[in-house]
Design brief:
Number of domains: 1
CATH topology: TIM Barrel
Largest sheet: 8 strands, parallel, barrel
Distance between the termini: 22 Å
Helix content: 40-55%
CATH class: Alpha Beta
Strand order of the largest sheet: 1-2-3-4-5-6-7-8
Radius of gyration: 18 Å
Number of strands: 8
Order of helices and strands: HEHHEHHEHEHEHHEHEHEHH
CATH architecture: Alpha-Beta Barrel
CATH superfamily: Aldolase class I
Number of helices: 13
Amino acid sequence: MTRKQLVENIKAKKSFLCVGLDTDPLKIPRHIAEGPDPIFNFNKAIIDATAPYCVAYKPNMAFYESFGAAGWDALERTVRYLKENYPDQFIIADAKRGDIGNTSKLYARSFFEHLDVDAITVAPYMGEDSVTPFLGYEGKWVILLALTSNKGSHDFQLIKDAEGTPLFEQVIEKSSKWAGPDEMMYVVGATQGRMFEDIRRVAPKSFLLVPGVGAQGGSLEEVVKYGMIDDCGLLVNSSRGIIYASSGEDFAERAGEEARKLRDQMAALLK
């Protein structure tokens, strides 16, 4: 999916919501968990209920890989279901890959050619040759970890060099030479608040994938105030607050309601 297509969908739906498919069979409603094909059937119901209100889905690979071949099969069918029934949705594989060149090249082939997602999250710690194999696929994106919202993010990401530049800014500045804003996005946690101003100083045109709104306590209003650009430039992710809004038989309906609430907030904040 190109940037133009993504932006057009954001404008049409008045939404920049990404729904995280962090599907855990231990947390999904019992009547689904005890039935056949629980992971896929849960995802299908969530997608059908939330698709009118979002522009992207982000399955987290760990939740599928932890169930071996059955989990990967459910993931493949989830992606296929999205592509066949909701082709306007931007699909992100939240894999956080990043390894030496030959290995990254095979990861890229797996996710972009076999699974055929639109984007993959990548960890930049090993540098240019671990990231560039994911680039160059037409209509595909790299989403590089920049400033995350987890507790340990301060261990490395905020370390400053002799000139006082924090590491996350150095990562963005360096990686922006490998690909432009039509091929590379950055992960920035919603709990970072006004630090979005620092992000926008070094990445003024890039899309940002923003987890942490909702259950993790990030403020949508702050993200928009300090992070939005002319064509939006934001994909705000919510996972648990939507997909686990209910553990009963109304789980899909409740998920749709929570997605709609976020969409309505976004519609009011869009420029």
